Amino acid sequence: MSRYKQTYAEWSTDPERFWMNAASSIDWIKAPETAFDPDMGAYGRWFPDGVCNTCWNAVDRHVAAGNGDRLALVYDSPVTQTVKRYSFHDLQTEIGALAEVLRLNGVDKGDRVIIYMPMVPEAIFSMLACARLGAIHSVVFGGFAAAELATRIEDAKPKVIISASCGIEPNRIVAYKPLLDAAIAMSEDKPEKCIILQRDALTADMIDGQDLDYSTEVGATKGTLPECVPVLATDPAYILYTSGTTGQPKGVVRDTGGHMVAMKWSMEHHYDVKPGEVFWAASDVGWVVGHSYICYAPLLHGCATVVYEGKPVGTPDAGAFWRVIQDHKVVALFTAPTAFRAIRKEDPSGALIDQHDLNHFRTLFLAGERSDPATIEWAQQKLKRPVVDHWWQTETGWPMSGNPVGLGVLPVKPGSPGVPMPGYRIEVLDDEGRQLPAGTLGNIVCKLPLPPSGTPTLWNAEERFHKAYLEDFPGYYATSDAGIVDEDGYVFIMARTDDIINVAGHRLSTGAMEEVIAAHQDIAECAVVGAADALKGQLPIGFFVQNDGASRDPVELERELVSLVREKIGAVAAFKTAMEVERLPKTRSGKVLRGTMQKLADNEAFKMPAAIDDPAILDEISSVLANRGYRKASK
Ligand code: COA
Ligand code: AMP
């Protein structure tokens, strides 16, 4: 039996014992005596009587063990031409000073702190300084607009916000501070203080009484090291807002203890990385990948992490990833397939790969969106190393399925993100909740309870948590992904069952975009769907109907709608196309046929929906799409 099968069987025979064993790799202030309490929360809670601190485990523990001089963090920023290295000792110093600043400004255990920052080491210091104090951070991705930030401020009610003067995109400098000020102005809840990191590329205007200069404050507290505050394993470590089916994002809550246990377990068994090695997740701290595998997991495991402020291409070329791997002796890279499609497009022969020394590099991990087999095969051929697709969600914080390299590499099936990880019993159900046979497409669900790190609830939204994840399939967590599990137990993720789309590995809600478009004064109704895109996987495209009596130029209206979505949601939505139609295709009960529209855009075969109100409308949609370069679908 392979080690994977053996380990999965160990988990499945006695999950509590399995996770209690895994928990022994964490330093506890009070070790848990109970692995799991099934009566707590919506489906039970892990390690309910454990007491711990994440910052201790990620930083102080390594210093205390005599590894203070070991490399902990590399900041590599081609956009500012900077490389900086921090040891665990340096990290402790930076985090200690910032934690003291937060403490002096009233941040206490359980208080929320929003972090709205670009990919700079101070973003990691901020996350860990919160962890040190037992405060709950909520990192907001820099590509989101002021309105999105405001929604998160209103929901999380942060005492302090940590931000920066700007982010640096290859084509422009993104001034963060005006976005932050606008978000605070929009929000009914105001933070008591904002700590602003002034960057060389742009100096932000500071507001007296509200804003503090990061460097000045930290300069004044350098050398202090407030204690690592003991928290319960079930206390929230962070809230991470992610797209839901409405404009109101879901505040995914992460437990402290279970999170650490799962992170540490996954570094050894899934990613096969050893303490002292360099692990690189080329993502952003604003996403779950950034939380788990830029910040927490590598540091908890005593590895060095890379904070990369750049893109896979254009900073300066498609060799950027290979240069970073070479310069910092990276052993494992984790990125989104989009990044590889971008690299392949610019360097199809992989010539730039060959120009770099990738001696230390062992494995490529891909996640965040479906990995098309062509991308996987190209990466395998050019890198001559295992290319591992794995599947997970913000809600779980770590892979639900994958190829646990640390337990021996399993054969790769291109198109499949591997086999279930210990912790996850993955099943495929029809809409009525009946189990489907192997190889049949259906709703992918996980038997409850979720393992450690799985979200126990949504911030301020217990009912929404039930409705979104637990109600449709009692006894299971509904992933909102559709797919199959084949006879060998390999999972295939085919599509979302809700209105979430995946744009360059970024999770976005078409419903949220529709809310923005529908608010325009000349719009009667609209629909947004995700159309297939060769680079980004999917791109949103909008259809709109003008109000009766409105006769606006559709080109002008499209421009207005595009800038409205950019202004309200952010550039990251990549919403660039909005087409006028006379009517939207609907069922007789008035449900918009978004799935059919998406198939028309992608030129996929589809069955005429039985309940369609007026089939002729599909011909109009087809010709509008054809005029815009999307091909007419065959019925
Ligand atoms: N702050 C501000 N703006 C941001 C931003 C940030 N942190 N990140 C992205 N944006 C902006 C970009 O500047 C761009 O704006 P534009 O419309 O003015 O050009 C827009 O959001 C879309 O950005 P992005 O998705 O990065 O697309 P791109 O066209 O600039 O680059 C790729 C294409 C393929 C290089 C890029 O999508 C990429 O690196 N993808 C990897 C995906 C990834 O790491 N996903 C994380 C999940 S694992
Ligand atoms: P996020 O919460 O941003 O991590 O997005 C989670 C969603 O991304 C999942 O529900 C899937 O739809 C999609 N996803 C993530 N990883 C994969 C993968 N390896 N293959 C297919 N889809 C994926």
Automatic annotation (TrEMBL):
It holds the Pfam family ACAS_N. Gene3D superfamilies: 3.30.300.30, N-terminal domain of ligase-like. Residues 513-591 form the AMP-binding enzyme C-terminal domain. Residues 62-447 form the AMP-dependent synthetase/ligase domain. It comes from the Bacteria. Residues 4-58 form the Acetyl-coenzyme A synthetase N-terminal domain. PANTHER family: ACYL-COA SYNTHETASE, ACYL-COA SYNTHETASE SHORT-CHAIN FAMILY MEMBER 3, MITOCHONDRIAL. This is Propionyl-CoA synthetase.
